[in-house]
Amino acid sequence: MNAATAVTSTTVVQILTAFAALTIPSLVPLVVGEAGLHAVDVGTFISIVYAAAALVTIFAGPLVHRFGAIRTCQFAVALCAAGLLMARTGSAAGLVAGAVALGLGYGPVTPASSHLLSQSTSAANRRLIFSLKQTGVPAGTALAGALVPVATLALGWRVALGLIVIVCLLVALGLQAVRAGLDEPANNHGYNARPGILSSITIALSQPYLRLLALTAFVLGGAQMCASTFLISYFYRSLGYPPLAAGAMLSVANVAGVVFRLVWGAAADRGANPRLLLAALALLTCFAQAIVAWPSLMASHAAAMAVCFVMGAAAIGWNGVLLAEIAEAVPVNQVSTATAGCLFFSFGGVMTFPALFGAIRHASGGYSASWLWMAGTAAALALILLVSGRRFAGSVVARG
């Protein structure tokens, strides 16, 4: 199996599906005076996307084993195209259906790519390669924030959506050229015993180390989504930053997330203990979100940018290390299923934490209590990761 082709293909799909999922939220603020796209609140739209992603993730293992990783990616990208076409109607029904389709496309991509990369990478560079592929998520998010508004202002939102649909369809077709070389070898690794529908959750809960990784994905997934959801509104509405300056804080966090996904992956490949590294990232997340809760400190743009950089490096940079650990913890024919199970809990955090964050903000009348609550949750995770060393020693099974 060609490792470079596998990494390139899965990274492109990761970027494109993340881009598609964030397209509607990126263009809605620019079309306030136009009909359409306001029948469903943006927050509700994103919640539907991630709820659908969480649901389909349960079935991702069987899908990958039945159709192959690249075929699953083709389905995913095509579903994203269909979702944007439905959202293009501007009706409430079209937006809801579009959000569901986008979530169904977004959900299975990571399990499919983990399945593929676990076969095409060696233990010496696996965490870096997984981290490289995972840079597609913040990269896709950043591209959506940068390109969608430009295309919307220049061409109109319906044309902009149409262009993205065309790109999705072209990528889905283009993947056919590499499918034979990447999907067929799966039949030679003992895949006749296909997992059951709920096997992803069963596997994720079957051993202590995977349960620890699922908990980590739940908390850090929630922390990542809170940062992505609330940083701009916090700096703009609460601290009075100009819109561009507030948006720059999220951009800084995402850039740090992209860069440090590679840094953390390389560090783990060069001997850093992945569990302790994840504990350190949880502590950094705690530190950054505790500091950002102080309005007086965040009045300085330089200090705010530094804190957002640290928050992005930790709360956005953890994914590749964790996904590679899942691939190391199970036999090769269970990688996609175990990844799907842990991602189900990650999507649970993505849906749960922003809602709790918003509820605390509403009850307290400001953002500080919400950031401090999130910091406390990250600190609790770090403590669990730090004290779990002996208990989980030997939990990782031999791959084969």
UniProtKB/TrEMBL annotation:
Pfam families: MFS_1. The chain crosses the membrane at residues 44-64, 76-106, 155-175, 212-236, 242-264, 276-297, 303-323, 335-359, 371-389. The keyword Transferase does not apply. Keywords: Membrane, Transmembrane, Transmembrane helix. It comes from the Bacteria. The keyword Nucleotide-binding does not apply. Residues 6-393 form the Major facilitator superfamily (MFS) profile domain. PANTHER family: BLL3282 PROTEIN (PTHR23527). This is Major facilitator superfamily (MFS) profile domain-containing protein.
